[in-house]
Structures are given as structure tokens and as C-alpha cells.
Design brief:
Helix Hairpins, single chain, alpha+beta, copper ion binding, Immunoglobulin-like, 3 helices, 2 domains, 227 residues, 26% strand
């Protein structure tokens, strides 16, 4: 959950999000080094007297041609690695289907016979004390922690987007099409997200809440809900 005046990312709760945060820091350090070098050269040119002598500087031209290529490679390689990791779905322990509607989400646990529900935002007037306004729902998505989860996302009417920032997950929900992604929660907790595609007048009122619990708690919850 983001805090007021927070400049950085939310605390990562999945391996993919941890990789994304590390790559962001890596790219930021590269950009900081480039900006520092450019500012130093600008200051040097302003303070030094300009010379009209034409000097053959093939070594300098070679450096400023090869150096940017090396920098781009240092940025591209980890970026491609993360992209392939985000597309990898390897034998999930649980499959969850999320269906976007105007303006709520429906969830189906396809590994269970009768386990599905609709998830609506709790109005401010009915919100319990201490819960987050515009983010809390009447039925949370409960998943076992440290287990690979595959989520299949689609929509019933217009474009939606199922997004949980702290898990590093964002998948478009398109009518007539199934998109899939996966995640693993590394710790127990409650993770909040929202529809990230403008989908109509109440676009801001269809939040997403994922609750990560130990496996024993998840089994008790699923047995209670499906009975």
C-alpha cells in the first residue's frame, strides 16, 4: 500500500516485482552517471577558454561511439531477461479467472468445482473503521503464498485492466479474448490494485484486493466458501 508523499515503488511482494525494482534502480544509476558526465563537460566548456585549433581526435570519436552502445547493452540485457520471466508460466498450483464488468470483477477458481464470486467495492457509507476508501471490496481474492498462481483475464463488456502494483502484475481484460499472466506472493498480506484501463463513468470504483495467506488458511477458506 502506497503512503502519502511516497516517491518510490511500493514494497515488492513477488519475485517479478523485486526484479523490476532492481532494474529501475540500475537504469536510474546509469542515467545519473550520464547526466553527471554531461553536466561536468558543460561546466568545463564554460570555464575553459575556447581554442580554435582543429585537432584530430579519432580516439575521442571512437569512445563516444562505443560507450553509448555499451550503455544500451547494459540496459537491454536485464530488461529482456525480466520480459521473458514475466511471460513464463510454469506448472501453476492454482488457476484463477478474472472477468471485468462495468463496474466490478468476477472471479472463478477453475481448480474447484463451485468456487466463484463477484467482487464489488464497499461504499464509503458502509466502510468499516480502518479500511481504505475506494480500495476495499466485499469479497477478496484469496491465494496461497509462495505458490505459483496463474490468472486468466477477460472482460464481459468493455476494456478493463487487472493490475496489482506490489505484485508487478498488469494484464488487459479484453472482451472475447483470454490473456494470462502469473505471480507468486512471497509473504502474507493484503495487496490492493485497481482497474488500469478507462472503462466508463465508474472506472475509479472497481478496485482489486488480493489476500495472501498460508496454504492451510487458504484450504479452510476454500472449503468454507465452496460448501
Amino acid at each position: 500500500m502506497a503512503n502519502h508523499s511516497q516517491f518510490g515503488f511500493q514494497d515488492a511482494s513477488s519475485p517479478i516485482m523485486e526484479e523490476l525494482v532492481e532494474f529501475h534502480d540500475h537504469a536510474l544509476m546509469v542515467a545519473l552517471a550520464i547526466c553527471s558526465l554531461v553536466l561536468y563537460l558543460l561546466a568545463l566548456m564554460l570555464m575553459e577558454k575556447l581554442s580554435s585549433n582543429t585537432v584530430d581526435a579519432q580516439e575521442v570519436e571512437l569512445i563516444w561511439t562505443i560507450l553509448p552502445a555499451i550503455v544500451l547493452i547494459l540496459l537491454a540485457l536485464p530488461s529482456l531477461q525480466i520480459l521473458y520471466m514475466m511471460d513464463e508460466i510454469d506448472e501453476p498450483d492454482l488457476t484463477l479467472k478474472a472477468i471485468g464488468h462495468q463496474w466490478y470483477w468476477s472471479y472463478e477458481y477453475t481448480d474447484f468445482k463451485d468456487l466463484s464470486f463477484d467482487s464489488y467495492m464497499i461504499p464509503t457509507s458502509d466502510l468499516p473503521l480502518g479500511h481504505f476508501r475506494l480500495l476495499e471490496v466485499d469479497h477478496r481474492v484469496v491465494v496461497p503464498m509462495e505458490s505459483p498462481i496463474r490468472i486468466i483475464v477477460t472482460a464481459d463488456d468493455v476494456l478493463h485492466s487487472w493490475a496489482i502494483p506490489t505484485l508487478g502484475v498488469k494484464t488487459d481484460a479484453i472482451p472475447g479474448r483470454l490473456n494470462q499472466t502469473s505471480f507468486i506472493t512471497t509473504r502474507p498480506g493484503i495487496f490492493y490494485g485497481q482497474c488500469s484501463e478507462i472503462c466508463g463513468a465508474n472506472h475509479s470504483y472497481m478496485p482489486i484486493v488480493v489476500e495472501s495467506t498460508p496454504l492451510t488458511h487458504f484450504e479452510s477458506w476454500s472449503s468454507l466458501l465452496s460448501s
